[in-house]
């Protein structure tokens, strides 16, 4: 994800620097695996030895998906936030912030202007702009994160589930003692971005306290790495109200958040917002725009935007072109990417190693090794960029990531032969790739080779082996490997044990996994949220639902909160097991413990009540949703309608749909099918047509009446279906013809050949050609019934249209 607008964080051994500059993209450093995560180039980070080696494959540990592991131990930037934070009565972050934001046109800052037309914003700065760089730089040292005040504030924040006036008073007193860098340290110390945002809002409302500019930009930076686009937009609006200068980078952060949420049009509208705010775009914002367009596979628009940049005097840099190269690679237009690299020197911007690494990553994914080698030669010949340790690290990681361990190992050997120091990180990546393929022996052999090379394996390498044994079902060997880690002076960590617990749960030994987790203190490791999630889903899969619920309670008690997805899977299992009341109690407990409950969770339990016919309980839970500020959606109302319709309670069912429409919710295709099915089941055609008119006024659905006719035919209401035929014969589509064929077949099955003939005649009059074979059957039946004239007329229609030749005996 693009990081072009970030207040850049350069991490050093003894301090963290947060840079505030108008063109942070100029501070680009090469990362070892920059092509694996292209956004790293836009982050402005130069980290050749500080890489997050979850390796993606091993790194599945933070996905919080049952049975999957992620060795980073977190949900990642784009994960749904699972905790609510309420300072006193303040709760600014609503439950929709971590979902798609939608087109919420506030009207106060011009955000409802056309998405793609926002590219024309650059024209308003024609000839008035030149590249600028703001050299202001704010520094946050590592010592700020260890400051006693910062640590105490963070401790109080962790007590949010038991928040009271006393704790709030303590926090208010500490806040006034914090310096701006320390406030930033508090915000960055929060694992949950929504918690950080709530603290930001709470602090802003305190008397005798005012956020410094660095705090605003730090909050924007944090939110730009999430999908909380509503929250980041509010922070930007708050800056305007507080009179804080909004640099182009501030708007770039908002673009980035929208981009993470997959909302391309909203991201581009930020340019219009900048124009209305009187803020001129700079290179970093333009680079972000190009990246957003490229990520959205809008390369033609990205190229047009590049032209406009140059017209107003913003000269592209290597990052600009690298964004385009990445975009071409993402849509498999590798030829265009290579051509762009070849053209860059003539544009006064020679390619850097990241330009080549981006294309190499594509070739590694496709296992086009010869082309990788050729590209390395071109680096030297055309750009005088010689392959170095970073180059080989990039190739090794990308090949390992995509399961090409043998080729990765070959490059590792080549790097060693050329004298480049290969550390345990590269070895570990290949080890994990072997383990994913079930090639444990080769992985162990490589570990032994690491010792020979003087490269001592670390906990990540050993954990990869443990995970590999678990994948292969060799749990005893996985346990022995954990013991060997101690012998080699490498202490297993939480990730190592979680890998083993995941293997036990996958093998149906969830009880043993829970016992091992309960004994974690004896082995000096601490379960995290992923550990609890793994064991909870193991118990759920084995049908031990009561134990799974107890584990969630224990999990919440430890300060870890399950995600709405995890909660929903447990609710589904409870409902499928017939324990609907227990499911309702569980969702109430989750609400009381500030877990992130969403509309899907409520709908799951409502569906459970509907399946068992407890409709009053389902309606009661619908009311509880409103009381909990969780608004039902189309699926909720459709589920309830179907349940009431199944019981024949059509008046109450109709009220639910009317209520849904009054709430501004649009009926979905599933809603239409459900409504049509239930009304036709009970033969309530008139009532159905009245309700359909209301629904169609809200959300058009072209095949609605086609479905009505088909369903009426299914339930035997042929005459009612025939009366509606005129509503589908207004067009000459194939779908309309198929609907008529259904009615003709039903008439034919009932022995009503003359009625089928009339349907065919109406089709001909609307320039629709009926099915010939079906009409031949109708004609034969007409002859048997003594309707020779109609039978001949039907066939004559086909002759007139050249669909068949006259038969002997046919009257012409």
TrEMBL record:
Keyword Aminoacyl-tRNA synthetase: no
GO molecular function annotations of the record: mRNA binding
All copies of domain Pentatricopeptide repeat-containing protein-mitochondrial, residue ranges: 234-310
Name of one Pfam family that matches: PPR_1
Assigned keywords, A-Z: Repeat
Positions of PPR repeats: 247-281, 282-316, 317-351, 352-387, 388-422, 423-457, 458-492, 493-527, 528-562, 598-632, 633-667, 668-698
Keyword Repeat included in the entry's annotation: yes
PANTHER family documented for this protein: ATPASE EXPRESSION PROTEIN 3, BOX HELICASE FAMILY PROTEIN, PUTATIVE, EXPRESSED-RELATED
Family label: Belongs to the PPR family. P subfamily.
UniProt protein name: Pentatricopeptide repeat-containing protein
Species of origin: Senna tora
């Amino acid at each position: 994800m693009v990081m072009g607008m970030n207040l850049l964080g350069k991490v050093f051994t003894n301090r963290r620097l947060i840079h505030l500059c108008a063109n942070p993209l100029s501070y680009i450093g090469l990362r070892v695996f920059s092509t694996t995560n292209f956004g790293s180039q836009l982050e402005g980070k130069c980290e050749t030895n500080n890489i997050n080696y979850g390796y993606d494959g091993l790194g599945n540990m933070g996905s919080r998906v049952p049975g999957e592991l992620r060795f980073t131990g977190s949900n990642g930037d784009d994960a749904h936030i699972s905790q609510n934070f309420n300072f006193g009565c303040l709760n600014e972050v609503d439950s929709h912030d971590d979902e798609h934001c939608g087109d919420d046109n506030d009207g106060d800052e011009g955000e409802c202007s056309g998405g793609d037309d926002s590219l024309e914003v650059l024209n308003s700065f024609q000839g008035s702009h030149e590249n600028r760089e703001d050299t202001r730089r704010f520094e946050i040292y590592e010592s700020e994160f260890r400051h006693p005040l910062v640590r105490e504030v963070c401790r109080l924040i962790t007590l949010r589930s038991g928040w009271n006036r006393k704790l709030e008073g303590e926090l208010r007193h500490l806040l006034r003692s914090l310096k701006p860098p320390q406030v930033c340290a508090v915000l960055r110390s929060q694992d949950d971005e929504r918690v950080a945002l709530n603290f930001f809002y709470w602090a802003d409302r305190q008397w005798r306290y005012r956020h410094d500019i660095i705090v605003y930009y730090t909050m924007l930076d944090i939110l730009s790495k999430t999908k909380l686009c509503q929250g980041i937009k509010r922070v930007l609006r708050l800056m305007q109200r507080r009179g804080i200068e909004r640099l182009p980078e501030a708007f770039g952060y908002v673009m980035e958040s929208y981009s993470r949420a997959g909302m391309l049009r909203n991201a581009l509208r930020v340019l219009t917002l900048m124009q209305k705010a009187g803020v001129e775009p700079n290179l970093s914002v333009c680079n972000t725009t190009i990246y957003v367009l490229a990520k959205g596979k809008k390369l033609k628009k990205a190229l047009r935007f590049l032209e406009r940049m140059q017209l107003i005097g913003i000269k592209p840099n290597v990052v600009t072109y690298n964004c385009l190269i990445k975009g071409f690679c993402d849509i498999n237009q590798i030829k265009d990417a290579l051509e762009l690299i070849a053209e860059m020197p003539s544009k006064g911007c020679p390619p850097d190693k990241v330009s080549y690494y981006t294309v190499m990553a594509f070739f590694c994914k496709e296992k086009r090794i010869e082309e990788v080698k050729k590209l390395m030669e071109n680096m030297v010949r055309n750009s005088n960029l010689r392959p170095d340790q970073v180059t080989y690290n990039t190739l090794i990681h990308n090949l390992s990531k995509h399961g090409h361990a043998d080729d990765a190992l070959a490059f590792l050997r080549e790097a060693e032969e050329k004298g480049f120091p290969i550390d345990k990180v590269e070895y570990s990546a290949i080890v994990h790739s072997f383990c994913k393929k079930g090639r444990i022996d080769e992985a162990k052999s490589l570990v032994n080779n690491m010792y020979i090379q003087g490269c001592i394996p670390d906990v990540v390498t050993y954990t990869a082996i443990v995970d590999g044994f678990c994948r292969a079902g060799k749990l005893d060997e996985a346990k022995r490997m954990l013991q060997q880690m101690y012998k080699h002076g490498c202490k297993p960590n939480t990730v190592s044990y979680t890998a083993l617990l995941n293997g036990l749960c996958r093998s149906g030994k969830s009880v043993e996994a829970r016992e091992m987790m309960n004994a974690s203190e004896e082995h000096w490791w601490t379960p995290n949220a992923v550990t609890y999630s793994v064991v909870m889903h193991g118990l759920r899969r084995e049908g031990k639902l009561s134990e799974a619920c107890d584990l969630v309670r224990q999990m919440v008690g430890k300060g870890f909160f399950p995600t709405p997805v995890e909660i929903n899977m447990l609710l589904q299992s409870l409902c499928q097991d017939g324990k609907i009341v227990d499911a309702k109690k569980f969702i109430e407990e989750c609400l009381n413990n500030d877990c992130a409950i969403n509309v899907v969770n409520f709908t799951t339990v409502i569906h459970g009540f509907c399946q068992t016919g407890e409709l009053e309980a389902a309606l009661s839970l619908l009311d509880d949703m409103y009381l909990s500020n969780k608004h039902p959606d189309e699926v909720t109302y459709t589920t309830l309608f179907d349940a009431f319709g199944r019981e024949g309670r059509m008046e109450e069912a109709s009220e639910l749909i009317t209520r849904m429409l009054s709430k501004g919710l649009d009926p979905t295709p599933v809603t239409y099918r459900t409504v049509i099915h239930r009304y036709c089941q009970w033969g309530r055609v008139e009532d159905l047509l009245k309700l359909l008119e209301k629904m169609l006024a809200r959300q058009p659905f072209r095949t609605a009446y086609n479905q009505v006719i088909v369903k009426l035919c299914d339930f035997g209401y042929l005459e009612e279906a025939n009366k509606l035929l005129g509503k589908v014969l207004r067009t000459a589509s194939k779908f309309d013809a198929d609907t008529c064929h259904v009615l003709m077949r039903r008439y034919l099955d009932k022995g009503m050949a003359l009625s089928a003939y009339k349907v065919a005649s109406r089709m001909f009059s609307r320039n629709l050609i009926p099915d010939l074979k079906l009409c031949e059957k109708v004609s034969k039946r007409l002859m048997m019934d003594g309707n020779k004239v109609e039978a001949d007329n039907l066939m004559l229609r086909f002759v007139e249209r050249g669909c068949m030749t006259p038969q002997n005996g046919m009257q012409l």
